[in-house]
Amino acid sequence: MLVVTVMFTLGILMDGELFRLERAQPLTFLAGLAEMGVGLLFFVVRWINPAAGDVRSVTYEYGYTFVIVAGLLNMLIVLDAYDIATGRKE
Length: 90
Description:
mainly alpha
């Protein structure tokens, strides 16, 4: 939990963008879904700063990459916990 939170926070501090779910742009839609994988933290940051992300920032690309990877990593952690709980993995 700490790693995902730190990664997401660093991504936001590096001017990472929180993508909108736009069906017209499939990659943006998928990036938004991946970011939502962080959970409640995503919605708190979206509520506090809806216009997060500055394209002119030098660290913008690193920032949104950190945010996306944090969401995907959290999804993998949840799936791993599910596999352990159901006995598929020891």
